[in-house]
C-alpha cells in the first residue's frame, strides 16, 4: 500500500475516532445533567431503559475506538492492509468499507463459516 493510501486511511480513521469520542462526551454530559426525579415509576423505568440502551451503544463504540487505535498502530508499523491470517493484501474497497478489519474477505468468510459449524 502506498503512502497516499495510508494517509487517506489515517485521515478516515482519525475522523471516525473523533466523532465517536465526541458522541461519548455528549453521553457523559447528558447523563450527569439528567438528575430528574420522576414521580411515576413507569417514566423512571423508561428513562433507565433508554440509559441502558445508550450505554450498550457506547460500549460497542468504545470497542470500535480500540480497534481504530490498533489500525492506526498498524499504519505506523506498516502492516495496515495486510491480512493477519494469510498475510495477503486486503482489498482497498474492503478497507474503505471497514478500515479496522484485519482479515481479507476470503479469510473472514472462512472464519464465519467455522463459527457457524462450531
Short description:
This protein has four helices and no strands. It is an all-alpha fold and 118 residues long.
Notes on the protein architecture:
The protein is an all-alpha fold. The protein has two domains: 1-80, DksA, coiled-coil domain (Four Helix Bundle (Hemerythrin (Met), subunit A)); 82-118, no CATH class. Helices cover 73% and strands 0% of the residues. The chain is built from four helices and no strands. The protein has helices spanning 3-33, 41-76, 92-97, 105-117. α1 runs antiparallel to α2. The chain is elongated. The protein starts with a helix and ends with a helix. The mean pLDDT is 91.
Main attributes?
Four Helix Bundle (Hemerythrin (Met), subunit A), 118 residues, 4 helices
